[in-house]
């Protein structure tokens, strides 16, 4: 009978000491208030009345959010939404439990201090453009500090900075002015290229016209030389030949002006016989 009672007590003690630990969870076990060991997921046993589970540590990645107000180098007060992904290192679970009294609040405090020191040398424009670099700096700083307490910083995300409406309006005005200035520079450059191109085209056109005129004069001079030589061979004097050429040019000019212009031309020159040109009548 006594043996049955003893076996029953042992069974009760065994059953009372059984503990089931869920997946992605660790349990901190204390013996009379002193750390004893860490229970892993599955079925575990502790000594009833002597040992107890002081805490269950969640190994999943947790998100810590904070709204951090910082001051930039150009004296702008900016609110940065920060999200920190952190988890407990399984091999450092005891340190994570015993070394930090309030992990979430302490992490937020460290984030605030790190951000303020990093953004003090940045302008508002830099903060908008270099958020990824700022997040990397924060992650490196927090990873080194939190690693000694049994926590791993998985990632740090910094959302778009938030400023007052007046500052946002002024900021947008600056950006718009810069875009207008860039557009004006591009437009001026396009006009310059167009003007240079037109000037080059005009210069080439004038050069071609000059070359054409020079060739035409060369051909004209050759034809006149040949005509004068033939006229001399026919017995016409040089004075008469010169007058004939001038008269021909004058008549061609009158004809061209009457065809192309809107002027009424009257030829008031003396007849050829009065000018001394001897024209045979027979």
From TrEMBL:
Main location: membrane
Superkingdom of this protein's organism: Bacteria
Cell compartments where the protein resides: Membrane
Alphabetized SUPFAM superfamilies for the sequence: Band 7/SPFH domain (SSF117892)
Residue ranges of every copy of the Band domain listed in the record: 16-175
Membrane topology summary: Single-pass membrane protein
Pfam families assigned to the protein according to its UniProt record, in alphabetical order: Band_7
PANTHER family tied to this protein: STOMATIN-LIKE PROTEIN 2, MITOCHONDRIAL
This protein's name: SPFH domain-containing protein
Source organism: Vogesella margarita
Lineage, broadest ranks: Bacteria, Pseudomonadati, Pseudomonadota, Betaproteobacteria, Neisseriales
